Maltose ABC transporter permease
Amino acid sequence: MKISMSEKIGQTVIVFLLSLLCLSVLYPFLYMLAISLNEGADAAKGGVYLWPRSFTWINYEIVLGNAVIRHSYLITISRTIIGTITGLLITLLAAFGLSYRMLPMRNALLSYILITMLFNGGLIPFYIQLYNLGLVNTFWVYIIPGMFSAWNMFVMLKFIQGIPEALVESAELDGAGPIRVLFQIIVPLSKPMLAALGLFTAVGHWNDWFAGAFYVTDQSLIPVQTFLQQLLNASDLSAVFGSNTNQEALARGAQTQNVTLMSIKMAVVMVSALPILCVYPFLQKYFVKGVLIGSVKG
């Protein structure tokens, strides 16, 4: 099929604009990486944009050698794994149950869930509820409130309704119960949707700093993103690291004027962002396929 000149020009313009968009997204990441790998005092002079001018590992030695950051990483990894698995499981069970059209009060339940998507009680009532449930200042404040997602439930529901009913009916005729139907028929056919929603849920848990900042006062329970938020608002390193700082690396960096607050901030940003970025390439193919099918089929 021959492409006209106007179509070629249009495609060229689209490619050019998308390339600019990619550069605008990639450049801040490269800039932070360059600052984190550069001596702090040298970077403060300016002129470091895409690659380090005076290369050093001292910033990462301080960050990775700090007990506070290592523990906050453990909290973040734990909440991401547990929160993603429980969130998908509870939401999937709700969607599967509501997929049965003969379920008593099904329409009322769907309407009730829809209302929770449109309205909420506000931050203060939510905090009071968490306090009364004994979740404030505990690890489970990261897990239990996010176990069910109304949006994910509707996406799962539409996807399940798109599966041919003949498959479910044939399994039920062979004596399969609801649990067997769910895990042997529904789940294998829903892998693209579950992968996409699982990734979105995991990213939400990994990037969440709000819960750690407002629902937790124990520093041993804060996730790495809350630690990063505290660091970005700090005026000096001791305000956040305190006595747990890697004093040897910090002293060596200070003697050579290698360490500044900005260089440490950039190193923490890179350390907190890289792990979740490494997950995207493996699940990228499921993004459009999983969410689009779940949103359209019905």
Q: What stands out?
A: The chain has 17 helices and no strands. The radius of gyration is 24 Å.
